[in-house]
Amino acid sequence: MKNIYSILFCFMCSLITSANVGVLNGFTHVANGKGGDVIHGKIILVNSSLKEERVTFSMADAIYNCGSNTYYTIERTHDFSSINWVHGEVAEKVLLPNEKFVFKYSIIVPKKELASGSYWSMIMVNVEKPIKEETVREQVSVKSKIRYGIRLITDINEKSDQEIEFEGVRTRLADQDKRVTISVGNYGMFAEKVSLTLEIYNQKGEKIKELYSVNSFVFPRVCKDFTFSLNHLFKGNYDCVLLAESRGNLIGTNMSIRVD
Hints:
By secondary structure, the chain is mostly beta strands. It folds into 2 domains: 2-156, Immunoglobulins (Immunoglobulin-like); 164-259, Sandwich (Immunoglobulin-like), CATH 2.60.40.10. It has 1 helix and 20 strands. The strands form 5 sheets. Strands 2, 4, 5, 7, 9 and 12 form a 6-stranded mixed beta sheet that branches. The radius of gyration is 21 Å and the shape is globular. The two termini are 42 Å apart. Residues 1-18 and 130-143 have low confidence and may be disordered. This is DUF3324 domain-containing protein. Keywords: Signal.
């Protein structure tokens, strides 16, 4: 079941277009605070169908691993979990046709000294009414409900300096699937939103392409993979400049790519 939930989260953006209930204000909510603070937030839902839809809300912890899927559990599983801090206004709601609903939640930070860093958990939004069977990738089907994961990140105290590093580079150069994957590690205590730029130069020193990644969070003590397609490159040797940006700061390195 964990595997199904992790795959669902990866594909929720594509499924949302066919789901009757949608999330209007994003899948990641970030707040700042300190011990004793009470932080208020909201999740805005809309039922775009002509039928009633029953939605339930639950908490989960998110487990991030380098190079693998995200897993969810209902139990607190790491020192920077905020699963016990979050309190929702309701446990379930029946949405009328075309109704917009604001689910309000509170993050109650414990009244004690906490280690500086990012604390996180998930609010799972479950659309309980059965839907038609949708096939997600191979051999995985969803028959009963759609589940959205809303990520709550609470940064406690002032942010320290970043510790973002390139962990490694992997290339795949098959005829129809040329790509490079860069692993970025976060050795700090705060979740960092990172974007990558890959500048590609030919042997004459001319820049022929500049590729950009989406902004993605890299969580403390784990890494995240960023992948660029290289299908546009012809055979040959290329020099590259790889840049990672976070909080307005840049780190960079040089690399070479050979396409046979």
